[in-house]
Amino acid sequence: MELQFYHVLIPLLPLIGFLINILLGKEVTRYQAHWPAILAVGGSWICSLLTLRDVLAGHVIDADLYTWILSGSFKVSVGFLLDPLTSVMLIVVTTCATLIHIYAAGYMHGDTGYYRFFAYLNLFTFCMLMLVMGNNFLQLYFGWEGVGLCSYFLIGYYFDKKSAADAGKKAFIVNRFGDFGFGIGVFMIFLTFGTLHYADVFSNASSMVGKTVNFLGMTVDLPTLIALLLFCGAVGKSAQIPLHVWLPDAMEGPTPVSALIHAATMVTAGVFLVARCSPIFNLSDVALNVVAVIGALTMFFASTIALVQNDIKRVIAYSTCSHLGYMFLACGVGAYAAGIFHLYTHAFFKALLFLAAGSVIHAVHTNNIQEMGGLKKYMPVTYAVFLIAGLSAMGFPGLSGFFSKDEIIWSAYASHSAVGKFVWVLAVSGAFFTPFYTFRVIFLTFHGEHRGVHHKEEHGHSAHGSGHGSHGEHHIHESPKVMTVPLMFLAVGAVAAGWFGIPPILGGGAHFAHFLEPVVGHPEFHGTHAEEWAVMGLSTMLALTGLALAAFMYLRKSELPVKLGRAFSVVYKTLYNKYYIDELYNFLFIQPTLWVARKILVGFTDAKIIEGVVNGVPRTIGIFSQVFRKIQSGITNNYAIFMAAGAVFIIALAILLRGSL
Amino acid sequence: MMVPLSWYMVLSLAVFTIGMMGFLSRKNVIIMFMSIELMLNAVNINLISLSHYLQDLRGHILAFFVIAVAAAEAAIGLAIVIALFRNKATAHVDEINEMKG
Q1: Where are the domains of chain B?
Q2: Is A153 in contact with A266 (CB distance < 8 Å)?
Q3: ipTM of this model?
Q4: B27-93 carries CATH number 1.10.10.10
């Protein structure tokens, strides 16, 4: 099957939407900026569905659109690869993007940068689609950097707020570290294969087996090196340890941004990369084990941090971190399909969690869950969808998250390796933490009494004598339809998206895994049905225990968390301060860098060398000119004598040198 | 009797030396101009005599160029001198030292 027009439209429409809003937004579209944006993304959603239909019909399209760079033997095209993996990503990206664009029309209503917001959101969608649709590594890299750039724009959207501007910079700089490795990985691929085209690279991948290469003076296994360098990029983009620090700070961006970029799509690009490069990763056990362990550790640490955070968006951000850890864990044990499956279900329930949290923030104007409470009766729709998303995220049986998470935990168990067992233990413990922190947020936000002091200065005229107490709760109201309707659609996804991948043991067909099998293969698992039931039962039981514990601590004994926090203040403080990772990095990297910048670059290089040259050259010229200006005596005879003497000198020289020349 | 080449050369040398010494030692701008003309004409004598001696017309051509340039130079130079004289009421080079560094 040839490349169709609507395949090209998928990335093209958001690009057009971006161009319309960035060029005409200020003058023409202004507060109607959501129309071009939503229509563009909606159009690509329809085209993505058509593409999915083509792929389901068994077509795999790998076609070049035009030659991008041609230099000697280096040839890169702009081209599209449409296979099952791409089509899954297309559905995830365009569905979430469309719903979030619609939601944002309500959430950002009246903001001064309305058109700018939608322009960047469209540019992001374009870059993300280029990333997932590319058929070569350079196009992947282009999309990769493009989404990073848009992430920077959108985190720092409220750029007049210092914390937002700083968070944007932090995200960008931390990603530099990962992308540096990723870039070198792409260079290594070109050096090894002489091409960056996926099809050529992956079909020859096995030729790398056993080859070694000298890297930084060490002899290392070539597949391991390339896989780990690529994984570097994934670690940065998907906020895995040790580069996870940017994601929680990225919550400074508007909530639709957090939902789209920092939950559903961009941060999952790392998982997509690993799955896409599975032929390379499969050649190296070391690399796979690194992926699994990094994923499991991130999952564990992020979920423990999430237990005690008070910022509603940060809790969900750490939850995203930990779910991304799950996905990498799955890829690391060879179950790429399970990882992508979790990516797909996670996109729905996590985007929903974020958007529901955004709906809450929209109503109460604070991020602190300690200042919320009792919102259930004011925001029934938000409460319902938040609950659905939370249940799906914790893996409540029957919902999307349950099937994908269970498949990951089972894959880790069934891989029967030492690393597999290690990550399985962490994965199961994560299954306990996830419901706890998710429902801690839900109970603190929606149940109990309202604890916030709600903007008396804004609504002072009606904050008293209205029968609702002095909190002014009656100002809290459900979000408008334009926000709640996308939430309902996402809720359907959070419930039902996982039904395509119900494992055979529960009577399903595992269609999702079969669909992806041509791309990522099928892992070899060893395990009986009894074991599978036991593993599933254990993780479900732990999840329900976590839920029950959260209910006990935050509904029944609401003074207990404070007591526990005091009793284990060291643990609490460590978790609350995110294991002091930021402080550690500040001490290890930021302060030395600042020291070098101030003492060496500013103090020496700049003050002595640069300014030395800049000031020294004119000063030297001045000193010389003080001497030479004396020649310029103004006496014509002196000049004449110099000329005569010069002529004599030159003639004498000519005569003397005549013999030797 | 043919006049030998060396006589012309000596004449040229003598005229040039007179011109040069005049240029270096005199202070009056007009005299200095005349010295320059002497030097140029010494060169012309040299060119013509050698041209004749070598039976090569290129020397003649060069001499014509020198005459043409000398004429132009004299015209401009005298114009400058007149302009200077109007401003400073002197033709003495030691009093014209605006270009002193």
Answers
A1: 27-93
A2: no
A3: 0.79
A4: no
